[in-house]
Write a structure and sequence with these properties.
This protein is an alpha/beta fold. The chain is 36% helix and 14% strand. Helix 6 links the parallel strand 4 and strand 5. Helix 1 packs antiparallel against helix 9 and helix 4 packs across helix 8. The relative contact order is 0.12. The structure holds pyridoxal-5'-phosphate.
Length: 396
């Protein structure tokens, strides 16, 4: 092993995940970066302090630990810079506050992560931003919604819970013709399965809480921008005093090392279960972009390199008055699948999906929507658990 930084260009994704973000020989050969706990950073003299003429100046402005993670994420996203924030939701609110002002108009995809809608409808509207939701499958038709004061177009693909795919390239091209910044919540695919900046997106958003963490024990977000928008994003994060904590950054970088192999397993198991669900009479539809039956499948196949472990299905229930009771009977019977928010960890989860906040893509009429996160357990055991759930739903 030599002393040079790892030359990652051209290397396979798992090779890169194993070596990006930290050069061991920059820190006594230790394989992992140090966890630097910091507020104060000392300067050697007043002149250096006055000019801020050294690499690190204060704890909120980055440490060797947070830099290691940011460099790794820049490598994966192809971005000019990354800021770390305390949650995935903050990874949405920080860029929105960085780029939007009173009097601006923002276009938000209707299948957006629900707390993003809450932030837009309450705080952004209070600050004088005009918020409008658009159909996820609008594609180039987004141009018809852009006004002279439209500043930001926010995308998320697949959509939260209902998995609608978006033609990101077409949307970004239309938005750029009118000078808008394009943001994308890329949490589901991770940069391993989709690289937003390669498709014209300016700012890629992640709940690193999910797959990068991988163990349901960290809450953190990242925002990665291209060269055009990086200075404004970075300034906003510094101005608001938003930063990521060193222990969390360390754990996320640790999680990245195994994310490729974990995702392969999540992908394979989730597809296996999705196909099995699709073959069942008690399932109305399976909402998974990698299934040819799904409406966004062609876009997924064209643009994405893989599928992660989260998807939804619609339990077949004839009578709308029974939607909730049947969904609860199904979910309350599961024992391997936990009932809880978030995803991306090693354990399987199942939740009832509420779509009551949607304004365009409303809840489907053919049954209750249930979202699954397929963890790292053995598929045969997961199927057995789901079988028991279907039996309970049928029995009531
Ligand atoms: C979970 C999630 C978030 C928010 O992440 P937190 O760390 O839980 O705040 C944002 N976007 C998407 C798509 C998510 O699934």
């Amino acid at each position: 092993m030599n002393n040079k930084a790892f030359p990652s260009a051209g290397a396979g994704v798992n090779t890169r995940l194993a070596h990006i973000g930290h050069d061991p020989h920059a820190y006594h050969g230790f394989v992992n970066p140090p966890v630097v706990h910091a507020s104060t950073v000392l300067f050697p003299d007043c002149r250096t302090m006055e000019k801020r003429d050294q690499k690190y100046t204060y704890g909120t402005r980055g440490t060797p630990t947070t830099d290691a993670l940011c460099e790794a994420l820049d490598e994966l996203e192809g971005s000019a810079g990354t800021v770390l924030v305390p949650s995935g939701l903050a990874a949405i609110s920080v860029p929105f506050l960085a780029f939007l002002s009173a009097g601006d108009h923002a276009l938000i995809v209707d299948s957006v992560y629900a707390p993003c809608r809450q932030f837009c409808n309450t705080m952004l509207r209070r600050l004088g931003v005009d918020i409008e939701y658009y159909d996820p499958e609008i594609g180039a038709g987004i141009e018809g919604l852009i006004k002279s004061n439209t500043k930001l177009v926010h995308t998320e693909a697949p959509g939260s819970n209902t998995m609608e795919m978006q033609d990101i390239r077409a949307i970004a091209d239309a938005a750029h013709r009118h000078g808008c910044v394009v943001t994308m919540d890329n949490t589901w695919a991770t940069p391993l399965y989709f690289r937003p900046l390669d498709f014209g997106v300016d700012v890629s958003i992640h709940a690193t809480t999910k797959y990068p963490s991988g163990h349901s024990d960290i809450v953190m977000g990242s925002v990665s921008a291209n060269a055009k928008y990086w200075p404004q994003l970075h300034d906003a994060a510094i101005t608001m005093g938003i930063c990521g904590a060193p222990d969390d950054a360390y754990q996320i970088l640790r999680g990245l090392r195994s994310m490729g192999v974990r995702l392969e397993h999540h992908q394979r198991s989730a597809l296996d279960i999705a196909r099995w669900l699709e073959s069942r009479d008690d399932v109305a539809r399976v909402l998974h972009p990698a299934l040819p039956s799904f409406s966004g499948h062609e876009i997924w196949k064209r643009d994405f390199k893989g599928a992660s472990g989260v998807f939804s299905f619609i339990l077949k229930v004839e009578d709308e008055r029974q939607f909730k009771a049947k969904a609860h009977a199904f979910l309350d019977t599961l024992s391997l699948f936990g009932l809880g928010y978030s995803w991306g960890g090693y354990e399987s989860l199942a939740v009832p999906v509420s779509l009551s906040d949607r304004t365009i893509r409303k809840a489907p009429p053919d049954g209750p929507v249930i979202r699954l996160q397929i963890g790292l357990e053995d598929v045969a055991d997961l199927r057995k658990d789901l079988e028991a759930g279907f039996a309970s739903a049928a029995a009531m």
